Amino acid sequence: MQIRLVAAADWPALWAIVETVFRAGETYAIATDIDEPSAYRYWVEQPAATYVAVDDDGTIVGSYFIKANQSGPGDHVANCGYMVAQAARGRGIAGALCEHSQREALALGFVAMQYNCVVATNIGAVRLWQRHGFGIVGTVPGAFRHPREGLVDAHVMYKRLAMPD
Q1: Comparing C-alpha atoms, which of 45, 39, 42, 53 is closest to residue 5?
Q2: Rounded distance between C-alpha atoms, residue 145 and residue 152, angstroms
Q3: Could you give the number of structural domains in the chain?
Q4: What's the Rg (C-alpha) of the chain?
Q5: How far is CA 89 from CA 15, 54, 148, 165, in A?
Q6: For the segment 41-80, what is each residue's pLDDT rounded down to a tens digit?
Q7: Distance between CA 122 and CA 65 in Å, rounded?
Q8: Between helices 93-107 and 123-131, what is the axis angle to 10°?
Q9: Residue 102's pLDDT is what?
Q10: Which of 20, 149, 156, 159 is buried most, with the most CB atoms less than 10 Å from its CB?
Q11: Of 46, 19, 47, 48, the residue nearest 34 (C-alpha)
Q12: Domain membership flag for residue 92
C-alpha cells in the first residue's frame, strides 16, 4: 500500500468512499444529504492536505485530510479526518493513515493533534486512536445524533506530537 497526496483524478473513487461514510451518518457530524461539490470542498479543498491510501492494484482504499484544528492562536494543533473503504476494513489501513498523518503533522509544523468528535459508539476508532497514543480528554454527553442509537456521547481525543518552540 502507498499513501500519497490526492490527485484530481482520484476524486471519483474517493467520492465513492466519502459518500458511503457520510450517508451512513454514524461517524461524522456532516449532513447525510451533503452534495458532492460540498463534500469535495470539505475533504479536499479546505484542508491543508489530503492523502489517499492506494492498494498495490491502484485501488483507493482510504484517505485522510489534515488541517489546523483552530485558526490564529490554535493553529499549532492539527485535526484530521480518516476514512477506509468498507471492503478494505480490518487490514490496518486506518492505523497506517494515522501514523502517516502524525509524521505529516510534524512536517507541517503542528505540535499536537486533536480529534473533536470521535463518536463513542465507534468503538473500533476509539481503540485505534488510543493504541496510537491519543487520550480521551473530554466527553460531551449526547453530542452526536446516531441514526440507530439516538443521542450518543462524543469524545475529544488529543495527542502531543512535539514540544512547542
Answers
A1: 53
A2: 6
A3: 1
A4: 15
A5: 17, 13, 21, 38
A6: 999 999 999 999 999 999 999 999 999 999 999 999 999 9
A7: 19
A8: 50
A9: 97
A10: 159
A11: 19
A12: yes
Domain assignment of residue 82, yes or no: yes
Does residue 49 fall inside a structural domain? yes
- DSSP of 26-85: SS-SS-TT--HHHHHIIIIISSSEEEEEE-TTS-EEEEEEEEESSSGGGTTEEEEEEEE-
What does the block give as the cell for 113? 493533534
Beta bridge partner(s), residue 93: none
Cell of 35: 452534495
Instruction: Tell which residue, 134, 127, 130, has the closest CA to residue 161.
Output: 134
Q: Which of 124, 112, 146 is nearest to 29 (CA)?
A: 146
**Furthest-apart CA pair in the chain: how many Å?**
45
Cβ 98 vs Cβ 159: under 8 Å: no
List, for residues 98-144, the tens digit of each pLDDT value.
Answer: 999 999 999 999 999 999 999 999 999 999 999 999 999 999 999 99
What DSSP state is assigned to residue 139? E
Closest CA to 82 of 90, 74, 93: 93
Rounded CA-CA distance 116/101 in Å is 16
For residue 57, tell me if it sits in a domain: yes
Overall size of the chain counted in residues: 165
Which CATH number do you get for residue 40?
3.40.630.30
